[in-house]
Amino acid sequence: MRIVIAEDDALLREGLAMLLRGEGLEVAAAVGDPDALLAAVARHRPDVAVVDVRMPPTHTDEGIRAALAARRDQPGLAVLVLSAYVEQSLTTDLLRGGTAGLGYLLKERVGLVEEFLAALHRVAAGGTAIDPEVVAQLVARRAVHGRLARLTPRELEVLRLMAEGWGNAAIAEQLVISDSAVHKHIGNVFAKLDLPPAGLADRRVAAVLHYLESRQDLV
């Protein structure tokens, strides 16, 4: 697996590079700004880009915008975005183009090496990895309005795990239920969120986006 890192904090950038190389992964470049990221992606054609959300010059959303530009330049590039804080609006911006090969983790997750590496490999394989803290903060609110209020606690739990990037088999294992039960719950989620019949992947993306955007309907 060939990786490019874009992180403006030099200590974290070098620490990530050392960690990944220590796991036998190839770090083709470790850079500190969005322009250098795009140049490194064009030069090295990596499998995955690990990108900080807030980068120079304004330290707002340059990392997200650079990641999206890199994916346009290299279709199929997997991107794992790192953020110091939960920023759900940026998460939804990242996911609007589809969830395949995308991840969004808090930087503190890097210290949990096994979890971080599992997320990296999942994203590289075309999956999704959304930090559990992002979705946990959404379900921590007491009042839920709109279509999410139609879901049972179990259906909301299944949707939360979908938002984290888990597939049906992994959800079944975590909830200790059958695959058919997971399939039924997901079908109920689609129906209660008024998602019309379409490709399964499209409806999963739509359900996850509705879940993440529901922060606007929470008080």
- Briefly, what CATH class of the largest domain? Alpha Beta
Q: How many angstroms does the end-to-end distance come to?
A: 43 Å
Q: What is the number of helices?
A: 10
Q: Number of domains in the coordinates?
A: 2
Report the CATH superfamily of the largest domain.
Answer: Response regulator
Give the strand order of the largest sheet, numbering strands 1, 2, ... along the chain.
2-1-3-4-5-6
Low confidence ranges: 140-145, 215-219
Q: Tell me about the biggest sheet?
A: 6 strands, parallel
Strands, count: 6
Element-by-element helix/strand order? EHEHEHEHEHEHHHHH
Overall residue-averaged pLDDT value: 82
Task: Quickly give the structural class.
Answer: alpha/beta
Determine Rg (CA atoms, Å). Answer: 18 Å
Helix content: 40-55%
Brief account:
It is built from ten helices and six strands; from the N terminus they run E-H-E-H-E-H-E-H-E-H-E-H-H-H-H-H. With 219 residues, it is an alpha/beta fold.
